[in-house]
Design brief:
The chain is of the alpha/beta class. The chain is built from 6 helices and 5 strands; from the N terminus they run αβαβαβαβαβα. The chain has a 5-stranded parallel β-sheet, with helices on both faces. Helix 2 links the parallel strand 1 and strand 2. The radius of gyration is 18 Å and the shape is globular. The structure holds flavin mononucleotide. Flavin mononucleotide binds next to helix 2, helix 3 and strand 4.
């Protein structure tokens, strides 16, 4: 009797842990905008958070829009280049839903997102994209990822554009939350 009660309690604890671990929000952010959005999204969905970082960190010089020789532009020019990623998420297997967030660079996801996808097994998971940008929509960046990795179960999220109002931000967050609940942006 005592033993079965303990087993039942263990089952409840294990079930609540796996429910909590279901969603992972991963993101790359060179200057903090995507990081803030990712943190808000993780808080709203009760997800774990993982930052995709370069083994060689990205500095403000690397993303200087006034310098076409900057690292970001060099990486953008070579679509096959894969910058080294610092770390891998732990227990990736335990997640059903993985958000991938990034700043849009040259109307595409930065090369490091491609490195991340190639180094982590996302097959069988729902992979939801989101981004921040100056003015570009997410659609082209998402399409390119889907074309490159057709075996993944992609869901297109939404981008947060520069200088959002609090309403814009809330709107983007609710759309992104709906992606994990419904597998698409709910109407
Ligand atoms: C190298 C580079 C290329 C960019 N290309 C685009 C672009 O094609 N379209 C766009 O709307 N914004 C573009 N941006 C603006 C970023 O997407 C935007 O500032 C983003 O919010 C930065 O996110 P972060 O602070 O997380 O790095 C670019 C920025 C950089 C540094």
């Amino acid at each position: 009797m005592k033993k079965s009660l303990i087993l039942a309690m263990m089952a409840i604890v294990m079930a609540s842990c796996s429910a909590k671990d279901k969603i992972l929000v991963t993101y790359f952010s060179a200057s903090g905008t995507t990081k803030t959005l990712a943190e808000e999204l993780a808080a709203k969905t009760g997800a774990d958070l993982f930052e995709i970082e370069g083994a060689q960190p990205y500095t403000s010089d690397d993303v200087n829009l006034g310098n076409r020789e900057a690292r970001a532009f060099k990486e953008m020019a070579d679509k096959s280049f894969r910058p080294e990623v610092k770390d891998k998420p732990k227990k990736l297997k335990s997640y059903d839903v993985v958000y991938i967030g990034f700043p849009i660079w040259g109307n595409a996801a930065p090369n490091i997102i491609y490195s991340f996808i190639e180094q982590n097994d996302l097959k069988g998971k729902t992979v939801i994209t989101f981004s921040t940008s100056g003015s570009s929509d997410l659609s082209n960046s998402h399409r390119l990822l889907k074309e490159q990795y057709p075996d993944l179960d992609w869901v297109e999220g939404v981008t947060l554009k520069r200088n959002p109002t609090p309403e814009d931000r809330q709107n983007v967050l609710s759309k992104l939350v709906s992606c994990s609940l419904h597998g698409k942006i709910a109407d």
